[in-house]
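Protein modeling request. Please complete all fields; requests missing the sequence field cannot be processed.
Requester role: graduate student
Desired output: 3D structure, token encoding
Chains: 1
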Amino acid sequence: MENYTYNSFTLQLEGLQVTKDSTYPVFFFFLISYTVFMIMNVGILVLIFIDRNLHQPMYILFCNLTVSDIIGSSNILPRLLSDVLLPPSERLISYYECVVQAFTTHLFGTTSHTMLMIGLTIRLNLCRTLIKNPFCDNASLFKLSCESVFINNVYGLTYTVVLYIASIGSMVLTYTKITTVCLTSKNKSLNSKALKTCSTHLVVYLIMSICGFTTIALHRVPEYSDYKKLSAILFVIVPGGLNPIIYGVQSKEIRNFFLKIFNSRKCLPSCK
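Delivered output (272 residues):
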């Protein structure tokens, strides 16, 4: 039986439901994952900042992507790590902190209409205190209300459909133009580089899109809440971990930078 407390500003996060034996393995798995891709993302940022050869439009865009990954993961994973070690009854969060986390979560996933979604939600009166998610997002927040959330659902689903159509449409248009250029170009080196970059980018995009769509869809199917939690966490971890590898490894300038450092360190003992 769910606890009803009207307009309470202390909420309870359901979080991940793990057994006592798997608590620490799960904790260290997420801790290592978070640490590794934070090091990779911060490393890429520092590298782009200190190497003047990387001060180009392409790397500025890559810098924005990296900052987005850092913000998105830091918004969710530190809190998730602390909650894993606590019993469910002690996983408490203030309503205002939850609103901030929900705002940042949606800002990470998308950059438009976020204020309107959160604005519609915070107008609702609260009658529940249990967040049935590992972290706060807009759907979790408006489910705390006993009022009609029809407008929130309609707006959220409409926004999602428009977002996905626009996103998929732009991707199809972009890749069609790239394919056309590759087919008409006789430059094998250019075609090979374009194919490698586009294929890896498409893999990350598909993973992120599938995880995001699954999370949104499963918000409407309470029976599969554990799958919803997993897809929501993968939405943050997978792109944040793969982007530095995919874009960093494929960059000739970044590879050359690390080769110079490696060779210079290798020469130090012989120079002495």
